[in-house]
Amino acid sequence: MPRIARIVVDLALDREFDYLVPDEWVDALKIGSRVAVPFGRREAHGYIVDFVETSPHAGLKSILKPVGTKPLIEEHILRLARWVADYYVAPVELAVRTVLPSAVRHTRASFKEVTMVTPTDLARDPLAVAALRRKAATQARVIDALAAGPAPMPELTDLTGAGSAAIRALARKGFVTIGKRAMRRRPDAGHTVLPTQPLPLMPQQAEALAAIRESVEGVGPPVTLLFGVTGSGKTEVYLQAIDHVIKKGGGCIVLVPEISLTPQTVDRFRSRFGDTIAVLHSELSTGERHDEWHRIHDGEARIAIGPRSAVFAPVRRLGLIVVDEEHEHSYKQEDVPRYNARDVAVMRGRLDGCAVVLGSATPSLESFHNAQRGKYRLVRMPHRVDHREMPVMRIVDLRQEMEKEGRLNVLSRDLKEAIQSRIERAEQTILFLNRRGFATSLVCPSCGTVARCEHCSVAMTYHKPTDRLLCHICGAQQAVPERCPNPECKDPSFKYAGIGTQRVEETLRKVFPKARIARMDSDTMTRKDAYRKTLGAFRAGQIDVLIGTQMIAKGLDFPGVTLVGVVQADMSLHLPDFRAGERTFQLLTQVAGRAGRGDREGEVIVQTFSPFHPAIQAARRLDYDGFAAEELEFRRELGYPPFGRLAVITLRCAQEELVKLTGVALAEKIVAAAGPETRTAGPTPAPLAKARGEFRYQIMLRAQTTRRITEPLKAVLREFKWPDAVAWSVDVDALSLL
Ligand code: ADP
Ligand code: ZN
């Protein structure tokens, strides 16, 4: 039977093509091999992503020849890609594509070549050079310029005023050689960092490091959950653990949430490890990404730092993977394959036989549960390095506030006074608004009606500059209604009801006309450097009050901040998601970590309509264990993760009847294929029931293990006849249930 290779061709980016494998290449070609293939009337290059037995296409052409010597994907990373495809129910091609970034796959982004001019021994012969100087002064200047060693041609012509003809003449005379050399684009070129030395560790850090070193040596559980409060010195522990691995000749991967991958963070690593670091940033140009990847692949860089996709970095002799802020939802990829980089890290640790550290001040309940049942080793760092207490958290009951004032103010009296006192003392304030969900929506103060997008069934957001309502999903706009749209209500105060960052800013400017106020959210921060500039100004003390969304909740360290206000904590509490409580707890705890990191004491004021909610109360008491115990009990009773697994199938279509019927047919087949221990619910309209004019239905699958969900699901999907109009996706271990 002829072997057929499935190939991703550089020219046709989002499809695979089948080619026959010629007999002579059967042994040489592997998954990950680069090959030349006939494509239309020309020749193209591509990667083998899979071998299959049969192809739906007739008259296949043959692969022409291999390109390059070794496949770019190592066997063990390929195994990881296959696991991702299998576990997350994704096509293997897409998983292979995920481990091999497009910047590396496409020949267009190959190394940048420069023409280098290298002096020969003749150039160091004083007599020969003197003779040259008499006849050709310009050429002699070139030789002078090369005294320090080889130089790129363009630099040399700039420096000496000699043309390239003069330099070629030198080559003919035997003074220099001219050759092409690959030059690496370094995103950090010209950026130097002062080296730092390892700090003497505090006892809790020393214990953590000892535990991680043990797991690097293969003693004890391979995964360590490092549960350390903000400022407990986790990063220093990572640095010294990495140092240990590097000294043993190994390599490391450090995963950081995209939003925390700031120059500040990277510099802490670079100051310790210099050029052995490669940063895989989403802001890199294609060329830079290509070169950083190859620096890792060639073993020149031994530490890869990056967001979730860095978990696939081709680091040599991997000894340790660090996942910082392991609870972060941004580790989950929202496109196929919908992998969670934290979980992939644990799996890669198993496949590569390396240690894994999951670090957080608010561990995910999944990881905490794994630690409790002994799967992971739990190491706690309960103290801050500077031994200061965590800030006091005060809860303001917005219901009482409304009763007293007769209306809902953005700033309660307590929060207003607290800001006032900070401004007087020249201290800084962060005001935090969690914008997910209904934050900038218009909610009628009388009847609770929300202004919704007619195409998308989500609340529209209010934009002050245009004084219009905008749908963030489909972009639809409309004027702000004069009255509440509910015909029974029609309250005219409706149009003043939204609370968004803009409204917070406006109120602040009115209340504190002299204060220096800045706002940071995805609307104001569309330019890359705007973000850095605002943070720089804030750090320099040029801003009194910084208003922001999630962007400012994490990882930033401002010694001047003594007050953090949460404008409305409920915004993340009432999402239709069983993790809403966990998210709110994490958010409040992280936000509180922003207050009082300098030598002054910090204060946190949380405004909420639900002051007695367990998540808010536990955050106030800084009681992770209490929160986890209660929340895990609730999850256990209902069989939610981590006690069971779930997957969500989402079906989308412009015709509601069709998507619903398709969902019913699919759910029936799954029920028939799965055992009784797999629970199938739906199809039901998704919480986000309509988006961009498409109706969205969900089927929720739950079982004790993932396998009990994915095995029957895959069997059904292989046969299922999808109507052309219906789009669908599977999300295993879904984090967002919208
Ligand atoms: P985390 O990552 O847990 O929030 P960091 O590692 O950022 O904590 O540490 C907080 C601060 O304490 C940093 O400024 C760091 O340089 C400092 N620090 C960490 N460990 C030590 C130590 N052993 N001795 C002195 N300072 C330390
Ligand atoms: Zn819309």
Layout of strands and helices, then pairs:
Elements: E1 4-9, E2 16-20, E3 34-39, E4 42-52, E5 65-67, H1 75-87, H2 92-99, H3 102-105, E6 112-119, H4 126-135, H5 137-145, E7 151-152, H6 153-160, H7 164-172, E8 176-183, H8 203-216, E9 223-228, H9 234-247, E10 251-255, H10 263-273, E11 277-279, H11 286-297, E12 303-306, E13 318-324, H12 341-352, E14 355-360, H13 365-372, E15 377-381, E16 392-397, H14 398-405, H15 413-424, E17 428-432, E18 461-463, E19 468-470, E20 477-479, H16 501-511, E21 517-520, H17 528-539, E22 545-548, E23 561-566, H18 580-592, E24 603-608, H19 614-621, H20 624-638, E25 645-653, H21 656-673, E26 679-691, E27 694-703, H22 707-719, E28 727-732
Parallel strand pairs: 9-14, 9-15, 10-12, 10-13, 11-12, 13-14, 16-24, 17-22, 17-23, 21-22, 23-24
Antiparallel strand pairs: 1-2, 1-4, 3-4, 3-5, 6-7, 6-8, 18-19, 19-20, 25-27, 25-28, 26-27
Helix pairs in contact: 1-2, 1-12, 4-5, 5-6, 8-9, 18-19, 21-22
The structure holds adenosine-5'-diphosphate and zinc ion.
Residue stretches low in confidence (pLDDT < 50, at least 5 long) are none
Task: Indicate the overall shape.
Answer: globular
Largest sheet: 7 strands, parallel
What is the fourth-level CATH superfamily of the largest domain? Answer: P-loop containing nucleotide triphosphate hydrolases
3D structure, described in words:
With 738 residues, the protein is an alpha/beta fold. The protein has 6 domains: 4-105, GIY-YIG endonuclease, CATH 3.40.1440; 113-183, no CATH class; 203-387, P-loop containing nucleotide triphosphate hydrolases (Rossmann fold, 3-Layer(aba) Sandwich), CATH 3.40.50; 392-437 and 501-633, P-loop containing nucleotide triphosphate hydrolases (Rossmann fold, 3-Layer(aba) Sandwich), CATH 3.40.50; 440-497, no CATH class; 645-732, 2-Layer Sandwich (Alpha-Beta Plaits). It has 22 helices and 28 strands. Strands 11-12-10-13-14-9-15 form a 7-stranded parallel beta sheet, sandwiched between helices. Strand 21, helix 17 and strand 22 form a beta-alpha-beta unit. Helix 8 (203-216) runs parallel beside helix 9 and helix 21 (656-673) crosses helix 22 (707-719). The longest helix has 18 residues, at 656-673. The radius of gyration is 30 Å and the shape is globular. The protein starts with a strand and ends in a 6-residue tail after the last strand. The relative contact order is 0.08. The mean pLDDT is 84.
